[in-house]
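User: Please fill in residues for this 395-position structure.
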C-alpha cells in the first residue's frame, strides 16, 4: 500500500475526533456531556424541514443541479448578502453554493493559492484552515495574537513576505468568540489594500452575536464587494443545519466561475434537497433564528461567570459571539499538577465525563475550548463536574 506524503501529513479534525469519541462513550452507556463540538442542539426549524420534504415529494430533489447551485438559490444568497451587508451590484454570478462552509473554504484555497503561497492566519484559529491551506499547496503562517485574541496590522506586517497571498479573518471567531469592530476592520483593510492581498472572511457566525454586540464584516467597508474580498458563510450555525451541509462563497464573479469549475469536478452539485432547504432558510420565516440566538445568549450569560469562577480558569473578556469559551487553564494545570492541556482534557473526559477540546488543536497551548451550544442544565452540570474534578485533584 502506498500513502501519499500529503495524506501522511494530514491530521484528522481534532474537534470531530474528540466529539466522535464522546458520542461513542454515550452510545456505550456512559453519561458524557459533550461540549466539544460546534453544533447547535436544536432541530432544524420546521419550515425548513417541510420545504425539503416538499422538494423530495415534488421530484425536484432527484436530479443534478448546476455545480455552483440552483440559480434561484444563488440569486437568493446574493440578495440576502446584499441586504445584510448593504452591498451593491451582487447577483447569482457572485455566489457558489457548497457542501458546507468547509467546502466553500476548501474550494477557495484551491482556487487562489499556488504552491508556496502564504496565508496569514491569526492564532488561535479554527482547526481546518491550516490543513486546508496545506492541501492546496499553500503555507499557513500563524500569527499569535495574545490575550486580546485580536490581530492588528502590526502583527500582520511582522509576518509579511513576498509570498504572502491572503489573510484569513474569522469574526465572530471560533474558538474565542471575539468580534472585530468596524474601526479595527478598517485598519486591517487599509493594511491588506496597501499590500494588495486577498482577504478570506469567514462570516459563518455573523448572526450569532450577544448582549447588544453587533457584527460588521470586513466586506461591508466598501459600497460594492471588493474583488480582493471573499465571503464565506453557511447555514450550519444560524439555522441549526449542520447535517444538511450547506455553505457558500460570495466573491468576484470571475473568481466564483473558477470555484464553480473546481466544484464541478470535486463534488458536482451540493445535495439538491439541502439546496431547497437553504432556499427556505434564507427566504422564509426567521422567527426561530432569533429564538435560538436568544437561547445561546442566555447560555453564555449563565456559563461565563461559572467558568471564570473555576479555580485556575482565566477568561477576562466575555465573548460576544459564536458559541464558545476559550479560557486559559494554565492555573488549573498548576493546581492539579497535571502535566499538559491534552492530559487535562483526557482526564476530564474519562473521569469527569465532560468532553472539551485541547487548545492545541487551535494552535494555542494552555487553553481549552468549551462549546455552549447545548442546553443550560447540561452546561451547569458540566461545570459542576469540572469543579468537582479540580477539587479532587488539587495538590
Ligand atoms: C469558523 C468555522 N468556519 C466554518 C465551519 C464549517 O461549517 P460547515 O461546514 O458546517 O458549514 C465551522 C464549523 O465548525 C466553523 O467553526
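Assistant: Residues filled in for all 395 positions:
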Amino acid at each position: 500500500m502506498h500513502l501519499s506524503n500529503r495524506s501522511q501529513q494530514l491530521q484528522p479534525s481534532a474537534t470531530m475526533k474528540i466529539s466522535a469519541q464522546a458520542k461513542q462513550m454515550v452510545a456505550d452507556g456512559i453519561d458524557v456531556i459533550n461540549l466539544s463540538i460546534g453544533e447547535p442542539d436544536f432541530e432544524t426549524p420546521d419550515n425548513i424541514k417541510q420545504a425539503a420534504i416538499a422538494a423530495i415529494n415534488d421530484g425536484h430533489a432527484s436530479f443534478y443541479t448546476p455545480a455552483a447551485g440552483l440559480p434561484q438559490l444563488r440569486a437568493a444568497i446574493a440578495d440576502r448578502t446584499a441586504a445584510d451587508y448593504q452591498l451593491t451590484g451582487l447577483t447569482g454570478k457572485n455566489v457558489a453554493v457548497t457542501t458546507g462552509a468547509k467546502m466553500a473554504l476548501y474550494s477557495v484555497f484551491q482556487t487562489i493559492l499556488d504552491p508556496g503561497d502564504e496565508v496569514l492566519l491569526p492564532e488561535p484559529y479554527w482547526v481546518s484552515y491550516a490543513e486546508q491551506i496545506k492541501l492546496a499547496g499553500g503555507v499557513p503562517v500563524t500569527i499569535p495574537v495574545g490575550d486580546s485574541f485580536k490581530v492588528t496590522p502590526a502583527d500582520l506586517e511582522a509576518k509579511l513576505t513576498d509570498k504572502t497571498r491572503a489573510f484569513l479573518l474569522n469574526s465572530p471567531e471560533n474558538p474565542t468568540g471575539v468580534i472585530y469592530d468596524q474601526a479595527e476592520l478598517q485598519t486591517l483593510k487599509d493594511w491588506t489594500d496597501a499590500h494588495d492581498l486577498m482577504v478570506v472572511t469567514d462570516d459563518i457566525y455573523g448572526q450569532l452575536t450577544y448582549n447588544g454586540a453587533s457584527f460588521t464584516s470586513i466586506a461591508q467597508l466598501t459600497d460594492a464587494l471588493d474583488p480582493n474580498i471573499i465571503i464565506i458563510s453557511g447555514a450550519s450555525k444560524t439555522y441549526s443545519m449542520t447535517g444538511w451541509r450547506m455553505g457558500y462563497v460570495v466573491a468576484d464573479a470571475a473568481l466564483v466561475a473558477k470555484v464553480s469549475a473546481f466544484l464541478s469536478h470535486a463534488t458536482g452539485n451540493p445535495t439538491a434537497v439541502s439546496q431547497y432547504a437553504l432556499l427556505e432558510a434564507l427566504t422564509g420565516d426567521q422567527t426561530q433564528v432569533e429564538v435560538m440566538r436568544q437561547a445561546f445568549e442566555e447560555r453564555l450569560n449563565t456559563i461565563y461567570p461559572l467558568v471564570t469562577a473555576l479555580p485556575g480558569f482565566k477568561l477576562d473578556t466575555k465573548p460576544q459571539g459564536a458559541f464558545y469559551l476559550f479560557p486559559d487553564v494554565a492555573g488549573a494545570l498548576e493546581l492539579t499538577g497535571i502535566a499538559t492541556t491534552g492530559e487535562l482534557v483526557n482526564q476530564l473526559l474519562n473521569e469527569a465525563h465532560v468532553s472539551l477540546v485541547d487548545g492545541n488543536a487551535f494552535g494555542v497551548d494552555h487553553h481549552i475550548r468549551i462549546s455552549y451550544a447545548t442546553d443550560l442544565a447540561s452546561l451547569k452540570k458540566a461545570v459542576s463536574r469540572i469543579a468537582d474534578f479540580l477539587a479532587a485533584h488539587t495538590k
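For context: The chain has a mean pLDDT of 96.
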